[in-house]
Amino acid sequence: MGEAEEEPQLIHTLAISAARPSKHLSFSPSFQRCALSSWIRENIHKRECCFFEKHVREDVCKCGYSKTDHVDEAIKPEDFTGETWDIHRHVREVPTDAFGDISFGGLGQKTGKYVRVSTDTSPEVLYHLLTEQWKLSSPNLLISVTGGAKNFYLKAGLKNMFHRGLIKVAQTTGAWIITGGTHAGVMKHVGQAVRDYALSSSSMQGQIVAIGVATWGVIHNRDALVFSEGCFPAHYPMDIKGQGRLSCLDNNHTHFLLVDDGTHGRYGVEIELRSRLEKCISRKLLGNKESGVTIPVVCVVLDGGPGTLNTIYNAMLNGTPCVVLEGSGRIADVIAQVAGLPVTRVSIALIHQLMKKFFGQEYETFSDLKIIKWTKMIQDVIRMPHLLTVFRVSEDSHGDVDVAILQALLKASRISESLGIESWKRQLELAIAWNRVDIAETEIFTEESQWKSSDLHWAMFSALVGNKPRFVRLLLENGVSLRDFLQDEETLCELYKQLPSGFFLRKLAKRVHSSRSRRQAFGIRARAHSGQGEMISMTHVCAEVRHLLGSFTQPLYPPSTMTYHFNMTMEDTSLSPSKSTTVSQAPLKDDSAEVQRNPGRDLFLWAVIQNNKELAEIAWEQCRDCMSAALAASKILKKMAEEGSDADEAEDMHELASHYEKHAIGVFSKCYNSDEERAQRLLVRASPFWGKTTCLRLALEADDKSFVAQSGVQALLTQIWCGELSVDNPVWRVMICMVFFPLIYTGFLVFRRDEVIQRETERNEEIKTVESVTGSTLRTNSHSLDPLRLRRLKRLGNWSRLVSLYSSPQVKFYWNIVSYFAFLFLFAVVLMIDFQVTPSAGEVLLYIWLISLVCEEVRQLFHDPDGFGFRKKARMYINDLWNILDVLSILLFIIGLAFRLTSQLFYAGKILLCIDFVVFCLRLMAIFTISRTLGPKIIIVRRMMMDMFFFMFLLSIWVVAYGVAKQGILIHNDNRLDWIIRGAVYEPYLIIFGNFPTNIDNTVFDINSCSMNGTDPLKPKCPVLNENQTPAFPEWLTIIMLCVYLLFANILLLNLLIAIFNFTFQEVQDNTDRIWKFQRYELIKEYHSRPAAPPPFIIFSHLYLFIRSVVLRRPPIICKEFKNELPQIEEEELLSWEALMKDRYLLSTQQEQSQSTERRILDTAQKVTTITELLEREEESSFDVMVKRLARLEEQVVQSTRALQWIMDNLKSRGLATKEAQSPLWSTTTDETYDNSRNMSENEVGFHVNARQFHYPNSKLTRFPVPEEKVPWEVSFSSYMPVYYASEDSGDHVDGSESEDLDKYRNPGGRTGVRGRGALSQLGPNLNLDLVVTRWRDSERSVLEYLAVWDESQGILALPGGPVQSADHLPVTLKRTMGKTLYEKMNAKVPEGTKVFEGYVDDCRNTDNAWVETTVLNIHLGRTSQVMVDINNMMVSSHGSLRWQEVSSKTRLSSNQIDSLRQVAEMHNRKF
After folding, report:
1. More confident residue, 58 or 686
2. Can you give the three-state secondary structure of 1076-1133, one letter per residue?
3. Whether 266 contacts 278, CB under 8 Å
4. Torsion over CA of 1301, 1305, 1307 and 1308, rounded to 10 degrees?
5. Bridge-based pairing state of the strands 111-118 and 99-104
6. In the chain, how many H helices and how many E strands?
7. CA distance 1334 to 1344
C-alpha cells in the first residue's frame, strides 16, 4: 500500500480510536511541566555577554549589564588588551533560564506563559512552542498591532470602538494578536481590550490570545522571571513608577516571547524576530490543509512615529494589508489625511504641514532629508490602496473596527490575486474560517455575482464540518444545490467521518470495531487494494440509524459498494457477505432498489444525530417529507438520550426532540386547517424516505403524545374507529342496529360513503346555481367535481352495509363488552351455584370461552402488520398493563382448572378461580379507556396507585413500630405466629379505620375473652396480670402510645396521602386527556384487526385465519387504514402541498417571533445603542469639522495677510524683478512644489514608480528618496544626492570610462535615486523584445490565447522575450526555452509581426543613466500552421515551461506585460 493510501486510513483509524469510550491517559501537571522544561532547555536559548569591557561607568559593560551580571570567564584581567567588545563575537547562546507561567498580582490574579528567547531563534521553533507546548490552536488570522510605544491619548469613542472591534474580530475568527507586550502605548490599549473581554465574558468562551513580543533587556523586574528549572508560576511585580527607562510587561497579555540579544537597555531588539515569526505564521496553511490557503496577516496601526512608518511600508511591500485608525495621533493621522488623495497632491510641503500639525514639538527635530524620505514612503503607501484601509469614526462604511480589519484582508486578497475564481475562493475560505457571514454577504455574495453549485461544494463541506450554520444557510441561498452536493455517496460518508466526538460517533466506532472483529472471526477479508481498514461506511451508518429509528423501518441507505459488507440491521447483527463470497446477493439488490435517496433527509439526519440544533433546523427546511423528518428526529433523539450516559447531553436531546415535535404539530395543523382529507392521508402514507413507515407510527414510537393528541390525528382515529359508519351516528343508534340490523337499510344509521356522496352532490348543486346566476364558468371550473369520480362513489349495497356494520371496530368493541359481561356472569354462576366435582355444561362452556380468549391473545401477540419483529412485538405486548392482566387471569384460570380437576386440590382450585374472577373483573376497566370521560380517570387511578404503593411503605413503618411495641408491652412470650401477626400488624392497621382495641384499657378487660397460657387457638393470650387478676401493664403508657399513633397515622399520614392524591390529580389532570388520546390508538388498532365475532364465536375466525395462513399459506390481508403506499404522482403532489404548508408554518413562526415581547425589547435596545453610537460619532465628527474649519480659516487669513503685504511691497518697489523676488506667499520650496504639483495634476503626468523603489533589486543598495514632485529633471532638487552603483555581473558598458559618460545619458522618465548603469548591461537605453504569440483556441474564434513561459524558480508567468541588440531578431535567451528549430522558425516570422508597443518601460533596474526600452511584437498563428505543430511538440517536451493561456485581465503577468496584452486584445477585437 502506498503512503498516500495509508495516510487517510491512519488518520481515520485514529479518529475512531479517539471516539471509543476508553479512558485516555491524562498526565499530571508536574509531569507536563517536566516535559515542557526539558523541551525548552533543549530547543530555546538565551544570549549572554562573554567578554566584559567597561563602558563609561566602571562597573558597566558595553553590553549594558553590570560586572556582577557576567560569568567569571567573561571578566578579563585589567591589563588585558587583546580585543575590543563586539556584539557578534562576544555574545554567545546558552540554554534559556527564564520560562514558565507568569503571575501578575492584583485583582483577578492574571496568569500567562513566558519564555526568554534568543534573537536567532528559529520562528518554526517558536510556532511549535506556541501550538504544541503551550497548546494554542492554530490561528485563522494574525493581527499585528503596531504604533506608539509611549502612552498617548485616545478619544473615548475611538478607544471603545478599537477595544470592541479588536476583541470581536479575535473572538469570532480565532485570531492571534501580536504586540510589543509592554504596559505602554498601543500595547496597553490591546491589554485593556483583552481585560475588558475577560471581565465581560463567561469562562466557557474561548480565551483571547494576545502574544507580547518584547525585548528582554528593557523589561523592568525581569530578575523575578529567572530560574533555571522554570517558574510555575513566577510572581512578577508591576512597578510603573520605578521603571525609569525600562518597561513593565503588560499584565493583560496571555503569552510573552522575551527576545534577548545579550544587551541591556536597547529597544527594538525584538523587531526582526517578530517580523520573521509573523512571516512564518503567514506561510502556515489555514484550517483545511488541502485548500492551500495560508493564514492571513493584517497590521493595525495606532499613533506611531517614524519607526511605525517603516513598519507599515515594509509590511505593505510584503503584501500585508494595514488598517490605520484616524484620530489615534501622529503618523496614523498623517497617513489618514493623505489617503485617498492623488499621489501628485501629496507633496513635501503637505507632509511638512501635517507633520507639524500632528507631531507638535517633535517636528522640530526632523530634518528636511527625513521629511523627503517619509514623503516618498507615504506616496508609496497610498499608491497601494488595496493594502491600505483607513478607519474613520465619522464614516459609517466600515461600521466597527472588526469589519474594517476583515474588509481590508478581503480587499487585499481581491486585488493581489489576479486569478479570477481563485481570488473569491480564497476570500470565501477566509470568511468561513473566520465565521463572519456579514463579511461574506457584503464583500463576496454581492448581487452582481453569479455562482455555480459545483463551485461552492467545497465551501459547503467546510461550513458543515466546521459547524458554521449561518454559512450553510448563506450558501444555500446563493446557489448551492443539496442534490448536487450530496449526489455522490462518498461526500455523505465523508461527512459522517468528520462527525464531532459524541454519542453517535462512539456508537458508530463500536459498530465498526465489532464488524471488523466479526469479519476476522468468519475469515472474511477485504481486498488489498481497497485500503479501507477500519473505515466508516454507509452500511454502518444505516445500521446504527435503523437501530435508533426502530426495526420496523426499512434501511435508509442501500448496501455499501465495498467488497464486503455486513447486514447489521437485525439485532443479532448476522453476517451477510457480498458478491465476493459464495452467498447470493440478490435480495439485497432488490431491497436497495427500493431505497430512495433524499439530500435534505441525508443532511438533516447527519445534523440530528450530532444533536446540532442550528444545522438540523436549516436541513429540515430543505426536507421534502418534513413532517416525517421531524417525527423521526424526535424518535432518534429520544432513543439517543435513553442510551446515553451524559445527563446534560440527554437533556439537550430531549429538548431538541420536543422542538421537532412542535414543528411536526405546526406543519400538521397548517395542513389540517387547509385540507382535512389530505392531512389525514399524510398521516398514514408510507414514507419512502424514512424506511417505508408512516408519520403516525413514528409519532407513536417516539412517544409524541402532543402530536397524537392533535384534533386532526384524533379525527382520523375516530374515523378508523367507526369504520364505514359515519362518526356522527349516536351510540344508541349503533347499539340498536347491532341487534336489529335491518334498520340499516332504512337510513336509521348513516354511512360515510353516503355522507360523501351527499356532500359532493350539494356542492355541485351550489356550483350550478352560481353558474346560472353569474353566467360564467371561469370561477367554478376549478371547484367542480369530476363526474367520473362521482360515478365511482356508488352507494353501498345491502350486503356491503351489513358487512360494514359488523366489521366496524366500534361495533366489534360493543359486542366484546356484551360478550365479556356474559363471560363474567357465567363465571360467577359457576363459582357460586354450579361448581360440581364433575364439570357441568355451563362450566364446559366457560372453558370453551376461555380457550377462545387464549386464542385471541395468541393472535394479538403474533399479529405484526408494522413489521416490528417478534421480540419488539412481545416487548410491546408485555409493556401493556391490560395484557399483563390478561396473561395473569389466563394463567390463574389454567392453574385453578388443573387443581379443580384433582380431588385432593378441588377446593384450592375453586379458591384460585375465585381470585381469578377478581382479576377478570379488574380487566373490565379496560372497556372504559375508549370513553372520553372515564378514560382519563383510569390514567389518574393508575398514577394514584403508584403513589399509594410508596405511601404504604411509609405507613408500614408506623404500623409495625406501634404494633410491635404494643404487643411486647401487653403479651409476654406468645409463640403463636398467627396471633403475633394479628397483634403486631393486623390490629394496628384496623385502628386506622376506627376499630379501637379493648385490651389496652383496664376498664373493659374481660379475663374470659383470652387464654391464660395461650393454649386456646381461638383466643388471644391474656396480658400479664396482677395478684388481683387485672392487667399489670402501665395503662397510661399504652393510651399515650395509642394517641400518638392515631395522631401520626390517622391525621398526619392519611392527610399526607390525600395531599399526594390531590397533587397527582392536579399534575396529571392537564395531561390525562393527552395521554388518553395517545393510548386510545392501541385500543382502536386492536379492535380494527380483531375478528368481527365476539368470544366464544371468535374461535371460528381463529380457525379460519389458521387455515388461511398456515395451511393455504396465503399472504395476510393488507389494510390501508394505518399504512398506505401512494402512487408516484399522488405522492409528489402530496409532498409539494406539504412543502407549501411548511413554508406557511415557518412564515407564521417568524412573524410570531418578530412580534414577541422579547424580540421587541431586543430590537428597541439595539436601536437605542445604534442611535447612541451615531450621536457620539456625530458629536466627535462635528467637533473635528469645526476644528478643521477654524484651522482653514486661520490659514486663509494668514495667506490673505501675506498677499496684501506682497501687493503693498510690489507697489512700493515698482519693479518686476522685485515683484518676482519678494513673493512671500510661500517659501521657495513650497512655491516650487505647488507649481510643479499643479502642472502635474493639470497634465495628468504619470511618472515611473518601479524605478524609484527604495531597495534596488539583487543588491543591498538603497535609492535616494525621490518624491513624486521631484521626478522631472526640470524641477529643481538641490538636496538630490543619488548613490552610484554599477553591478559587476551586468556585462559590458559603453566604453572603459563609464563615469565620464554619465552626463551623456539621462533617464527620459526622470530621477530614480541611483546613478550609474546599475544592474543593466550598458548606459543609456537597453533594448528588450517581448513576443506575444497568439492563436484562436477553436475554429469559431471564441477564445484568444497567447503563449506564456512559466518561470519555475519564481512561480510566475511571463511573455517570451529578453534583451536584444536590435528589434529585428528574437532574443538569444529564447533559444534555450523554445529549442533551436522553433527558435529559428519564430525568428523568421519576426518581420511579419505587428509592432504593438515601443518605448520606455518603468523597470525596477532603471537608473538615472541607464534604462530599459521595450518593443512588443505580436505574431498571430493559424491553427493549422507548421509552427503551431512545433510549438505543441515543444510544450510536451518542455514539461510545462511553455503553455497557452487565455488573453484575459485575470492572467498573472507583470503590469507592463498586462498593458501589452490589453493592446493585443484590442487589435484582435476581443474584450480584455
Report:
1. 686
2. HHHHHHHHHHHHHHCCCCCCCCHHHHHHHHHHHHHHCCCCCCCCCCCCECCCHHHHHH
3. no
4. 170
5. antiparallel
6. 52, 21
7. 7
Whole-angstrom Cα distance, residue 887 to residue 882?
A: 9
How confident is the model over 6-17, as a mean pLDDT? 40
C-alpha cell at 586: 440478490
**Model confidence at 86: pLDDT above 50:** yes
Cβ–Cβ < 8 Å for 855, 1098? yes
How high is the pLDDT of residue 415? 64
Q: Which residues of 496-515 are buried (b: 16+ CB within 10 A; e: fewer)?
A: bbbbeebbbbbbbbbbbeeb
Q: Which pairs count as long-range contacts for 1176-1185, CB under 8 Å and 24+ apart, including other chains?
A: 1176/157, 1177/157, 1177/393, 1177/394, 1177/396, 1180/155, 1180/157, 1180/158, 1180/327, 1180/393, 1180/394, 1181/393, 1181/394, 1184/327, 1184/394
pLDDT of residue 290: 61
The least confident of 213-227, 660-674, 924-938, 1338-1352 is 924-938
Cell of 414: 481581491
Q: Mean of the pLDDT values across residues 59-69? A: 77
Q: How many CB atoms lie within 10 A of CB 1437?
A: 9
Distance CA(418)–CA(507), nearest Å, equals 48
From residue 1098, alpha-carbon distances to 362, 818, 970 in Å are 110, 14, 62
- Backbone φ and ψ of 836, nearest 5°: -100, 165
pLDDT at 1218: 40
Residue 537 CA from chain centroid, whole number: 23
For the stretch 339-363, pLDDT in tens is: 888 888 888 989 998 988 888 888 8
Query: Could you give the dihedral angle defined by the CA atoms of residues 1142, 1143, 1147 and 1152, in that order, rounded to the nearest 10 degrees?
Result: 0
Whole-number Cα distances in Å, 165 to 149, 172, 677, 1310: 21, 10, 56, 45
Q: Which of 482, 433, 474, 427 is nearest to 454 (CA)?
A: 482
Mean pLDDT of the chain: 80
> What pLDDT sits at residue 1232?
41
- Rounded to a whole number, what is the distance in angstroms from the first to the last CA of the chain? 49
DSSP single-letter state for residue 1021: B
Any idea which of 165-179, 1016-1030, 1179-1193 has the lowest mean pLDDT? 1179-1193
Q: Report the C-alpha gap between 1332 and 1156 in whole angstroms.
A: 67
Say if CB 91 and CB 50 are below 8 A apart: yes
Decide: 985 and 976 in contact? Cβ < 8 Å.
no
Compute CA 58 distance to the chain's CA centroid, rounded to the nearest angstrom. 65
> Which residues is 297 bridged to in the sheet?
142
pTM, entire model: 0.74
Q: Which amino acid is located at 987 in the chain?
A: E
Instruction: Collapse the DSSP code of 729 into the 3-class scheme (helix H, G, I; strand E, B; otherwise coil) and give the result.
Output: coil
Determine the Cα–Cα distance for residues 652 and 1230; give it in Å rounded to an integer.
Answer: 73
Per-residue model confidence (pLDDT) at position 660:
93
Cα separation of 774 and 131, whole Å?
82
Residue 1298 in contact with residue 1266, Cβ under 8 Å?
A: no
The cell for 946 is: 403508584
C-alpha cell, 900: 379443580
**In the Cβ-directed half-sphere of 465, how many Cα atoms lie within 13 Å?**
17
Note whether 249 and 222 are within 8 A (CB). no
Burial 898-926 (b: 16+ CB within 10 A, else e): ebbeeeebeeebbebbbebbebbeebebb
Let me know how long the chain is. Answer: 1472
Q: Look at residue 404 in the predicted model and tell me its pLDDT.
A: 82
Q: How many CB atoms sit inside 10 A of residue 128's CB? A: 14
What does the alpha-carbon distance between residue 385 and residue 1008 come to, in Å, rounded to a whole number? 120
Would you state the cell numbers that stand for residue 1148, as one nine-digit string?
A: 407564521
